[in-house]
Design brief:
Low-confidence stretches: none
Structural class: alpha+beta
Mean pLDDT: 89
CATH topology: Arc Repressor Mutant, subunit A
Radius of gyration: 16 Å
Helix content: 25-40%
Distance between the termini: 41 Å
Largest sheet: 3 strands, antiparallel
Strand order of the largest sheet: 1-3-2
Length: 138
Amino acid sequence: MSDITTTLKTKGIRPTAMRSLVYQELAKQDTAVALTDIELAFTKADRTTLYRTVKTFEENGIVHQIDDGTGISKYALCEPGCNCEIENDLHLHFHCSNCDKTVCLTEHKIPQISLPDGYVAEDVNLVVKGICSDCSGS
């Protein structure tokens, strides 16, 4: 059994050929990608199938969605052991205003935030915007 098949089964996802291919495509990326980027990689695939695959991955903790302020949702694979829990797994994202790429900074965790009584956090998203190391020449 391949690593991808094992990962999908562990998360309760039936490992179809398309799901395995989409997972493989996401694993090749070093930046978060929009659904349109995934569609471009699979020009012969049905858009609805790709959308449902990404949503299934998101609902089962394979990918997380990133709102980087561009108005286009981006997706990136979760790191191993991630359960997308607000208390444990949230990290910074960086959006380059020059090349428009968004990257996960998984080594930089978002600190826990104490909310007033009665408030319940459902999602936390922290995006730092600026110039990435590729664009800045550093």
